[in-house]
Design brief:
With about 240 residues, this protein is mainly beta. It has one helix spanning about 1-25; strands at about 70-75, 90, 95-100, 105-110, 110-115, 125-130, 145-150, 155, 165, 170, 180-185, 195-200, 210-215, 230-235.
């Protein structure tokens, strides 16, 4: 059997050589190869960027690590006010970001930047918690005062068209820190890549973030503050 195979191979070769030199025809052959690429979740933190020109800005908090994380959350300020004998509602001032390379400063509505580089498109939830009532560090609190936050728009920094639609408005925060409030819900199939969630829509203070102080609240002169914790979690 092996001898026949060898002979048959020689016979084909002889015809091939004769065909090349005898008739001038060209033998065309093809072969296939594979091209592959693999992806894995990105565990490196992303630097916060200017929402408009997408250049690195100076962070106000260290960015998270992991494929689902937060790179920026505005520090919220209502400025200095004169006390009045009436209920007062204050609007948050604009956020000023600093270009990391040039030092140039620019004003934006307050915003939070998130990223989802897991590659699953399962969605995510952004929520916030107030960690105690506004206080001056000397035992004085703004009793009865409360914050409200509204997510007004969201912008992709990855060219994604599948934008989250679950933006929450007028979320009243619980001053004692006993509950969190939803800000944005990215439904399944949305929220992939990097995003800026704007808590305002104009380059002037708006009612997207408010501080309401009742008439009955005792306001001892001083600077009052609290902290907010922002949570970004997978949609289960």
């Amino acid at each position: 059997m092996e001898a026949k195979v060898v002979k048959r191979s020689k016979l084909v070769l002889a015809i091939f050589v004769f065909g090349m030199f005898g008739s001038g025809s060209v033998l065309a052959q093809d072969v296939q190869s594979d091209a592959t690429v693999g992806f894995q979740a990105n565990n490196n933190p992303l630097k916060p960027i200017d929402p408009e020109i997408e250049k690195p800005i100076v962070p106000v908090q260290p960015p998270n690590k992991g494929p689902l994380g937060l790179s920026y959350a505005s520090n919220i300020s209502f400025g200095k006010k004169s006390s009045k004998n009436e209920q007062e509602v204050f609007f948050a001032k604009l956020d000023t970001v600093t270009n990391e390379e040039t030092g140039e400063k620019k004003d934006y509505p307050n915003f939070v930047q998130v990223w989802d580089l897991r590659g699953k498109a399962t969605g995510w939830d952004l929520s916030v918690r107030q960690n105690g009532q506004l206080h001056d560090g000397k035992g004085n609190q703004l009793e009865g005062a409360y914050l409200t936050i509204s997510a007004r728009s969201i912008v992709s920094h990855s060219g994604m068209k599948e934008s989250p639609t679950g933006l929450k408005t007028e979320q009243k925060l619980v001053a004692d820190g006993s509950a969190t409030q939803d800000i944005v819900k990215a439904e399944s199939g949305t929220g992939v890549g990097a995003w800026s969630v704007f808590l305002g829509e104009e380059l002037s203070p708006t009612d997207a973030i408010t501080l309401t102080i009742p008439k009955s609240t005792k306001k001892v002169p001083g600077v009052y503050s609290t902290t907010l914790t922002w949570f970004l979690q997978d949609v289960l």
